[in-house]
Amino acid sequence: MRLFPPNIEELKRRRDVERLIRALKDSDDLVRCVAANAFVKIVVKAKEECESLIKCLNNLGIDTKIERRKLKELEEENYSAAIKIKECKEGLGVRLMS
User: Fold this and answer.
1) Residue range 48-75: average pLDDT?
2) Long-range pairs of 76-83 with CB within 8 A, sequence gap ≥ 24
């Protein structure tokens, strides 16, 4: 039995995906929801970084069809995670901080 819940903000800041995934499996509903919210923020940040990289590559004349396809997949995964967070928040009746 643990004494303290995981520090989700710290995990998000460090982009500690492995430990965030463990937090998504936590027995505490609130920990799972906050972890899912943090996970989505990491995905959104990664998407922004990918878009910047694609623009840079395009400016250099490098074809980015594969990268754009991967970015589309990332958007679809982010949408699925957002739906799960919404369901989780509704189930708990709490408002998660942005």
Assistant:
1) 75
2) 77/43, 78/40, 78/43, 78/44, 78/47, 81/36, 81/39, 81/40, 81/43, 82/40
Roughly what angle, to the nearest 10 degrees, separates helices 29-59 and 17-24?
Answer: 140
Domain edges within the chain: 8-88
Global pTM value? 0.58
Contact status, residue 24 vs residue 32, Cβ threshold 8 Å: yes
Tokens standing for residue 28: 């505490």
Reduced to 3 states, what is the DSSP secondary structure of residue 2?
Answer: coil
- As a whole number of angstroms, the distance between CA 24 and CA 31 comes to 7
| Closest-CA residue to 54 (of 44, 64, 46) | 64
What is the per-residue pLDDT for 85? 67
Residues 70 and 84: their CA atoms lie apart, in Å, by 21
CB atoms within 10 A of CB 15: 12
